Amino acid sequence: MRSLVGGVVAALLLAGPAQAGIAKIKGLHDDHERIEPLIKAPMTKVEGQGTVFAVIGGDYGFTLYDASGAEVVEYEDSQEAVGLTLAPGSYRVIPSIDDDVHHHQFIEILVKTD
């Protein structure tokens, strides 16, 4: 039994650092029949250098903001963000809407971090 436990501990120590993490930056924008638009865009922390590897939703693009509220980047086509590199820090995303057609949008940006 001791050799099994010792082997497991050795394997864990030799495995090296933990695998990269994934940050999920999410946002919701809804102005359907509302006086003021509903925007839910919590700050999400990206722990290390990160690269966007997938974008779900955001049919009309999005704007990404840093913790100070400064615009980092804006896309009309959300899929163009794949490959974008982000520095460590906190971010929020607000999906764009089409005033004439689609008044409700959700987006999730997946970032692989070091």
UniProtKB/TrEMBL annotation:
Q: Which UniProt keywords apply?
A: Signal
Give the signal peptide, or none: 1-20
Q: Which domain of life is it from?
A: Bacteria
Name the chain's protein.
Uncharacterized protein
